[in-house]
Amino acid sequence: MTGKQRNEVSPEEITLEEVIEEVEDHTQEDEVSAETDTDEATAEITIESLSEQIEILKTQAEDNLDKAVRAQAELDNVRKRTTRDVENAYKYALDKFINELLPVLDSMELGINASIDTSGEEVDISSLHEGLELTMKMFCSCLEKSGVNPVDPQKGDKFNPDQHEAVTVQEVDDTESGAVITTLQKGYELNGRLIRPAMVIVAK
Predict the structure, then answer these.
(1) pLDDT at 197 (0 to 100)
(2) What's residue 2's pLDDT?
(3) Over the chain (204 residues), what is each successive 10-residue block's mean pLDDT?
(4) In the sheet that 187-190 helps form, which strands lie side by side, from edge to edge?
(5) Which residues, 6 or more positions from 163, have their beta carbon under 8 angstroms from its beta carbon?
(6) Could you tell me which residues are beta bridge partners of residue 198?
(7) Is the dihedral of CA 172, 177, 180, 184 positive or negative?
(8) Are residues 183 and 200 in contact, defined by beta-carbon separation less than 8 angstroms?
(9) Sheet holding 198-203, edge to edge
């Protein structure tokens, strides 16, 4: 029953059912209106929340980008320093060894100058010999400091194929077969690794 119809009806004609129906209609309208208001408020809150999250993510993205740029710059610097250090190590790897050799060179120059007779006097061979021995000791000491050690098998030592190279084989009565008779040239090791075998003659 509409409002106009109700106005045309007298109060006596309005039944209890019609009053209940009217109340229910108003209640449904209020509920629909309340739900609409709630949905609009929720939508506003959701949009505001998303905007805040977007701003937070933008800030985090900018911070991460800045960190990435800094990390890349640092990596480039480390790469450049490493390249420079490797180049310097390659160029000056023998720096210490050369400094050890220079006194030997000085001694050899002194010996050569002493062997030249410019005054007409006889050259002292014994002094030259002593000078050569001193130079030899200096040179051996320099090699030893750099990790170079001689491989010098003595007569009677067993032939070691890992360190020796047999030049020839000879029959010797007082020497066991397979033993070193003579060392023709010393071998050398660098920090325990063979860089030149000793040249030897081996008993047959």
Answers:
(1) 95
(2) 46
(3) 46 54 58 54 70 86 91 92 88 83 87 70 75 89 91 94 94 88 94 94 92
(4) 148-151, 187-190, 193-196
(5) 151, 153, 187, 189, 194, 197, 198
(6) 164
(7) positive
(8) yes
(9) 164-170, 198-203, 180-185
Superfamily of structural domain 148-204: Head domain of nucleotide exchange factor GrpE (2.30.22.10)
From the CB of residue 108, how many other CB atoms can be counted at a distance below 10 Å?
A: 15
Nearest to 184 by CA among 170, 203, 164: 164
Q: 165 vs 170, 180, 186, 188, CA distance in Å? A: 14, 10, 10, 12
Structure-token match 């710059």, residue found: 73
Query: Whole-angstrom Cα distance, residue 28 to residue 30?
Result: 5
Both tokens of 57, joined, read 């993510």
d(CA 123, CA 79): 60
131/150 Cα distance (integer angstroms) = 22
Contact 192, 158 (CB under 8 A): no
